[in-house]
Amino acid sequence: MKNATQRPVGRRGFLRTAAGAAAFGLGGSFWDDATLEAAPQNVNRNSRPSQLKITDLRVAVVKDAPMTCPLLRLDTNQGLVGWGEVRDGASKTYALMLKSRILGENPCDVDRIFRKIKQFGFHARQGGGVCGIEMALWDLAGKAYNVPVYQMLGGKFRDRIRGYADTTQSKDPTEFGRRLKARKDQGFTFLKMDLGYQLVADTPGTVTMPAGMTPHELRNTQHMFTGIELTDKGVAMLAEYVAKVREQVGMEIPLAADHFGHIGVNSCIKLGRALQPYNMAWLEDMIPWQHAELWKKITDAIEVPTLTGEDIYLKEDFVKLAQMHAVDILHPDLATSGGILETKKIGDMIQDYGVPMAMHFAGTPISCMANVHCAAATENFLVLEQHSVDVPWWDDLVTGIEKPIVNQGFVKVPEGPGLGVELNLEVVRQHLAPGEQLFAPTPEWDKERSHDRLWSFDYRMAEPPVANPRRAD
Ligand SMILES: [Mg+2]
Hints:
Layout: H1 11-23, H2 33-38, E1 54-62, E2 69-76, E3 81-85, H3 93-96, H4 99-102, H5 110-117, H6 128-145, H7 149-152, E4 160-164, H8 173-185, E5 191-194, E6 207-208, H9 215-220, E7 229-230, H10 232-249, E8 255-258, H11 265-275, E9 283-284, H12 292-301, E10 306-308, H13 315-324, E11 329-330, H14 334-337, H15 339-351, E12 357-359, H16 365-376, E13 381-385, E14 398-399, E15 406-407, E16 410-412, E17 422-423, H17 425-430
Parallel strand pairs: 4-13, 5-8, 9-10, 10-11, 12-13
Antiparallel strand pairs: 1-2, 2-3, 4-16, 6-7, 14-17, 15-16
Helix pairs in contact: 5-6, 8-10, 10-11, 11-12, 13-15, 15-16
């Protein structure tokens, strides 16, 4: 098999050559003999896009990237291979259960296949399988037609994608500020920090909460139902923590905050007001995204941007939050929100309400490139999370692009076909999660099926007529 991504010049190169020849008056006509002879050499002859069919889906789960990430491989009848990724922390089963639904399909029909399988996704990690498959379909379509994914989305608004980064936590604000400043020194132009009430809870009189809550209750009770509220002293200490961090990183660089703990709505408002002097870029997921009216109450009460979205599946809930102006910024995770095209649609639709799109992300370079192509093609994109800055082998997972992938806080938009990267299988093998295999066969998923309809089926309308399934004969 020839390298699936081999592309001596490519169709865009061919067009450039032809246009250049015309512009300089070379040859007797635009389609001179030399140009016509050259044309077939520039076409990817591995691929006959209209005949392309999906023949297999396999998985390799890597760990410590820093998250656990199921990587996907879609094989085809023409030797082209497409790469995708289920959202970090999600089960590979979310993708494998879709295998029987996509075998035999032409992967270039990305939107049609997405609409067929999207009923099997849901919010948070349950969206991971649909989105991972969608990424791999775009990779195959791009390789079949020899164009990068961003081009199929309508082209670029930018050549490099701004990243934001967090760092490891410390209860000492000066120490934490130094760590965050190191990110700035690495070139990052946008920072994020955790600001949980746990930072100050050791000091008496900072947090009011019912005694005896178990760790399980603390984790799994939604914010409004915990009874946990910050005292004025607790709010002041958290504001002082941010003040010390700002002393280290300066006031000029955008600084967002996340992971406040499961505190009530009024505590969110009190804290938001106390943070106004520090000009935060956004306050993230202070309460669950489902509570749009409560989000709006917080957003309307404070002069600091609010943000949510990393666990929302499909565009409709994003649009609702944007229409309401429940938050100032929306923050899809492309591996949950519906994949590359759905996330571009989310960006375009919320743009009409004046809402920017930041992007949540914590996967491998495969999913990173899916984000990068989408971010390049979406006008109201703000910034993309980079969660693996301290993982030394993260870049090595892929080949075909410039390294470091995140350079001075930015990712260059790749120009290769599809996602623009190939997996380095040896590096993937070295970082497999316990018990996982490197793209082993998955025949047990070939025939998985159910009555895949979201509305009732009237057998009498079938053509040609079918027997009444309720009759014994
Ligand atoms: Mg978050």
